């Protein structure tokens, strides 16, 4: 009996230690992948696109400038979206939910999401201007692949799945 218990404890300990090592390794790898360059931009993003699309140094710098401008334009939109979502969750949590307020907030959230989408498209159009036709084809392939995925890598919600 003691032998079985020791084997079970050893297996659990080994599994736990392995999980901890994998977690630390993953976090370390992700941290290095997204290290910031001198301008505060993600080195991973810049290098990945430069290599994948075959960008020159000048094209990569122009792309990074466009990306930086897009981030500045989108920050107030993202902040507003976060605020509206917090308001919506607060409304949902109330004892007597005001459906008119909920509908209004959902409309405002939708409008902010549309504004964010406009900024992304505007950014994509802006960076395409500095690309060769071959680079545009590769960029379009990247966009199609990227936007086919559900947000944050999640699977779409299905009715047959419970919480």
Which key features would you list for this structure?
163 residues, mainly alpha, Four Helix Bundle (Hemerythrin (Met), subunit A), 5 helices, 77% helix
The CATH topology name of the domain at 55-147 reads Four Helix Bundle (Hemerythrin (Met), subunit A)
Helix content: over 70%
CATH architecture of the domain at 55-147: Up-down Bundle
Low-confidence stretches: 33-44
N to C succession of SSEs: HHHHH
How many E-type strands? 0
- For the termini, the CA-CA separation is 39 Å
Approximately what portion of the residues adopt beta-strand conformation?
Answer: under 5%
> Major sheet, described briefly?
none
CATH top level of the domain at 55-147 is Mainly Alpha
Shape by Cα distribution: flat
Mean pLDDT: 77
Number of helices: 5
Radius of gyration: 23 Å
Determine the structural class based on helices, strands and strand pairing.
mainly alpha
State the gist of this model.
The protein has five helices and no strands. By secondary structure, the protein is an all-alpha fold. The chain has a domain of 93 residues: Four Helix Bundle (Hemerythrin (Met), subunit A) (Up-down Bundle), CATH 1.20.120.
Q: How would you portray this structure in words?
A:
It is a single chain. This protein has 163 residues and is mostly helical. The protein has a domain of 93 residues: Up-down Bundle (Four Helix Bundle (Hemerythrin (Met), subunit A)). It is 77% helix and 0% strand. It is built from five helices and no strands. Helix 3 runs antiparallel to helix 4. It is flat, with a radius of gyration of 23 Å. About 7% of the residues have low confidence.
């Amino acid at each position: 009996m003691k032998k079985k218990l020791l084997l079970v404890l050893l297996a659990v300990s080994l599994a736990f230690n392995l999980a901890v090592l994998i977690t630390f390794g993953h976090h370390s790898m992700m941290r290095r992948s997204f290290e910031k360059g001198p301008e505060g931009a993600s080195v991973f993003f810049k290098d990945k696109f430069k290599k994948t699309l075959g960008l020159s140094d000048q094209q990569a710098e122009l792309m990074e400038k466009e990306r930086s401008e897009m981030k500045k334009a989108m920050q107030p939109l993202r902040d507003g979206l976060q605020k509206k979502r917090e308001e919506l969750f607060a409304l949902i949590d109330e004892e007597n939910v005001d459906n008119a307020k909920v509908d209004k907030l959902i409309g405002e959230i939708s409008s902010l999401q549309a504004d964010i989408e406009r900024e992304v498209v505007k950014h994509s159009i802006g960076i395409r201007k500095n690309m060769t036709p071959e680079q545009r084809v590769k960029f379009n392939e990247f966009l199609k692949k990227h936007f086919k995925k559900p947000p944050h890598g999640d699977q779409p919600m299905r009715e047959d799945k419970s919480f």
